[in-house]
Amino acid sequence: MTEPFSCDIMRCDNLARLLLPRMRAEMVYRLVNERGITQSEVSKRLGISRAAISQYMSRKRGFTRQDLPDDLDRVIERWVSAVASGEGTITICDVCRSADLPDRR
User: Fold this and answer.
1) Rounded to two decimals, what is the model's pTM?
2) Is 2 exposed, middle or buried (CB count within 10 Å of its CB: 0-12, 13-18, 19+)?
3) Cα–Cα distance between 88 and 97 in angstroms, integer?
């Protein structure tokens, strides 16, 4: 039996440092390449600079050779859909619940 999810600041810290930059890079890539949204429009929708979008697209920001955990693909796709449609939200807690992060206390 698995333990129920519990909020932990160390887990959130690991998530923010290790996974969110890679997830954002993947989300930006999917919005532009799969959904056909312009980089300028993605910049506006996410509230980040056009230069940041360009860096995500060229893999200069948020890219590592490590694959994201498989269970996060669904969360990234939900995030892409929410941004593309302007409806729905994804929270840090949604990502954290889906991530299988090692405990680094």
Assistant:
1) 0.79
2) exposed
3) 17
DSSP reduced 3-state for 70: coil
String of b and e for 9-32 (b: at least 16 CB within 10 Å)? eebeebbeebbeebbbbbbbbbbb
One digit per residue, the tens of pLDDT, for the chain of length 105 reads: 445 567 788 888 888 888 888 899 999 999 999 999 999 999 999 999 999 999 999 988 888 767 777 778 888 999 999 999 998 888 888 888 777 655 444
| Total length of the chain | 105
Could you give the CA distance from residue 28 to residue 32 in angstroms, rounded to a whole number?
6
Give the Cα separation of 42 and 105 in Å (integer): 36
